[in-house]
Amino acid sequence: MKSLSLSWVTMALATSIFSISSVSAAPAATTSNANAASTSPAVTYNVAGKPSRVSHFGLGAFIETNINSGTDGGLYAEIIRNRAFQDNVNNQANQNDALGKGSLLHWSGTSQSTKLSLSPDNALSSALPQSAVVSGDRNQSCGIANPGWYGISVTTQPHQLSFYARSPTGQATTVPVKIGLYSNDYSKTYTEQTMPLKLTGEWQKFETTLTPSQASSNNNNVFAIKTTGACRDGFQVNLVSLLPPTYEGTVARQDLAQALADIKPVYVRLPGGNDLEGNNIPSWFNWTNAVGDLKNRPGRTPTWTSGWNTEGLGLMELMDLAEKWGAQAVLGIYAGYSLNGEAVPKSQLGPYIQSALNQLHFLLDTSGSWAELRSSYGRSEPYKFDQIEIGNEDWLGAAINTYGAYRWAAFRDAIAKEFPQLTLIASTLKNGVEGAKAVDDHMYSTPNQLFEFTEGMDSTSRDVPIWELEIAVINSGLTNDTDIYSGPGRLQHPTLIGALAEAAFLAGAERNGDIFYSAAYAPIFQNEGPNATQWTPDMLSFNAGQMVKSTSYYIQYAWGNYPIKQIHDASPSTPTNSSHIYHSFGSNSQGALVAKLVNANAEQRTVKVQVGNGSKLSSSGATSWQMQGKNPQQANTLSNPNAIVPQSSSSGLPKGASLGSDGSLTMTLPPYSATVVTLPLA
Ligand SMILES: *[C@@H]1O[C@H](CO)[C@@H](O)[C@H](O)[C@H]1NC(C)=O
Ligand SMILES: *[C@@H]1O[C@H](CO)[C@@H](O)[C@H](O)[C@H]1NC(C)=O
Ligand SMILES: *[C@@H]1O[C@H](CO)[C@@H](O)[C@H](O)[C@H]1NC(C)=O
Ligand SMILES: *[C@@H]1O[C@H](CO)[C@@H](O)[C@H](O)[C@H]1NC(C)=O
Ligand SMILES: *[C@@H]1O[C@H](CO)[C@@H](O)[C@H](O)[C@H]1NC(C)=O
Ligand SMILES: *[C@@H]1O[C@H](CO)[C@@H](O)[C@H](O)[C@H]1NC(C)=O
């Protein structure tokens, strides 16, 4: 997602290639009457009463790992930051080692006399080679504290604590410690337990449940382990983990995972994108290091976020989440290219292809050694998915030189031979990618660029199914930036007009759902901690205790919750580029008509929907959903989380809608609005 995709689809389709200078600053001026309600409709839609095509479109979600502290520090519920002392001091560009040098970053002593040191001796495991020795004045208390990921929000739910400890001298000893959650000045204790740590020279795992008696009013809190009495020889500690209750038995943070569940994604692309590739070849997503006991997961250098990829939200954890959401994974497979521009040479690709095959056997086999390994990690049933994507954005940078030349074909041939049932999605069709059965295209734009793009969507080539698994409005378009990524118009949070442009795109994809198979907003997660964010805007912003649903989130919600199965062709009386009203009509699994209408104008607009083929719309059992706002630049933020909140009704038409005796629907769309109406078709 590192640069603008004037993508294959865009190139193939756009009736007018995005030309920044020609993009007008405000939403296009409109020709229709402002006082529409009392006059003739701005647009009349003649909608076929019978479907013409099956829609394959299913809403996607993309779990882009380790950007914006959105997975480690976000979706992954782990509270402790740098839990195994792996964070690099500075992991940017120049520090590409696959295994970190480690640090005590984010840890502090609980007393002035505490001394913390990082020790490579007596490693817990080869994957977690460093640990912390807590020592200091032998006669004073000593201990170690962690502030979480940009703070800890203390709730009164039970938290599962585990850590490993040993005696630093190797001599058997008992160290009584207090373990708890405290305000960061220790003036307040939310929960505290005394534990006699019976230590030896061997690492032992200690576990307990901490249930705070009161919740915190802010996030300025720490977790700490400190000796109840004198420090003496202190203690050595590693892999300190504190988990609040998680989503449905997964390792995911409840509010974030629930928000994703609520949009009802059909597909979940995971893991990655850039995080799949790694900063360099040694730091690629080697799935074997992202399964099994946490103590055997070394993690690796992250691609966007500073610190460390713990891989705690690993391959199975991600697959489990997709399954809990009722979605199918679209599994990203590393294709031998990493972000520093290096590609694995053709002659050395073998082990990476074998690793991909092993990964697929591990996830899909019903019996045999891979299935047994999976079972040993707690999952006997194979996972179920039909699509994988080979690589990530292989049109970008130097990737294009080798993808079509040998990487795509090498992975495709090997995988197709052993897993003929899988559809292989290419990450680009450029540069001679032969025989691809599907492509993943990405698009980041201004609102008007996206509105313009939708003009060409009906004439999309029907050759290759399109998965648009990264799409977002990222720039207001108000400052005419020549670079929408770095110009002043770059959005901090999704806006109303941006979300409406995304809705127009989704409407275009859905009414062309015979060829657009999916679309996913990217990125989803943004930790709002200081310096935690590398990419804006994002669908869900959060801190340790709070989450905000953006306007873009609500549009995804509407498309996920009111899906269609079949497409009903519609001819609008006015082209969308002059009406600035966007549409999709289809029937759902109950055979009801689902109408999605986006009014991107500053004034209300009346539209009429006439259904042909002798069919009539009926209002009994009608449902509606609507999002609207007065200010197109309005965004939901942590300080104003509910600036724009949609309304839904499970009985009846929305305000301003009525059915005619001829079975047609007349509806006044509010300014800057997206509306979904479901009506039985008789
Ligand atoms: C339904 O109406 C459309 C035009 O509105 C027409 O093209 C189509 O043939 C009709 N289908 C049937 C089954 O009558
Ligand atoms: C620590 O305690 C021991 C035993 O009580 C005592 O002998 C020693 O002087 C104390 N050391 C300091 C620095 O206070
Ligand atoms: C992936 O990691 C495993 C475990 O560390 C290692 O044995 C294997 O060689 C790695 N695969 C490749 C292709 O580097
Ligand atoms: C952006 O471009 C439009 C059309 O060329 C122009 O009318 C507008 O003043 C420009 N806005 C800014 C902020 O430069
Ligand atoms: C955020 O990053 C800036 C620039 O690197 C730095 O000056 C600042 O101290 C950082 N703030 C925090 C709270 O880490
Ligand atoms: C609207 O789109 C149509 C079809 O793509 C095109 O022919 C026409 O020129 C466009 N009109 C405007 C005003 O952009």
Descriptive notes:
With 682 residues, the chain is of the alpha/beta class. It folds into three domains: 36-55 and 564-679, Golgi alpha-mannosidase II (Immunoglobulin-like); 58-77 and 250-561, Alpha-Beta Barrel (TIM Barrel); 108-243, Jelly Rolls. It contains eleven helices and 33 strands. The strands form six sheets. The protein has an eight-stranded parallel barrel with strand order 3-14-15-16-17-18-19-20, surrounded by five helices. Strands 2-24-26-27-33-29-30 form a seven-stranded antiparallel β-sheet. Helix 5 packs across helix 6 (369-376) and helix 8 (447-454) runs parallel beside helix 9 (496-511). The longest helix has 20 residues, at 399-418. The chain is globular and about 90 Å long. 53% of the residues are buried. Residues 3-38 and 91-98 have low confidence and may be disordered. Residues 286, 288-289, 351-352, 355 line the site of one 2-acetamido-2-deoxy-beta-D-glucopyranose.
Main sheet characteristics: 8 strands, parallel, barrel
List the total number of helices: 11
| Largest sheet strand order | 3-14-15-16-17-18-19-20
User: Roughly what percent helix?
Assistant: 10-25%
Question: What top-tier CATH class of the largest domain fits best?
Answer: Alpha Beta
- CATH fold call of the largest domain: TIM Barrel
Strand content: 25-35%
CATH superfamily of the largest domain: Glycosidases
Sequence stretches where pLDDT stays below 50 over 5 or more residues: 3-38, 91-98
Inertia-based shape: globular
For the secondary structure, the number of strands is: 33
Q: Give the class from helix and strand content and strand pairing.
A: alpha/beta
CATH architecture label name of the largest domain:
Alpha-Beta Barrel
Cα radius of gyration in angstroms? 27 Å
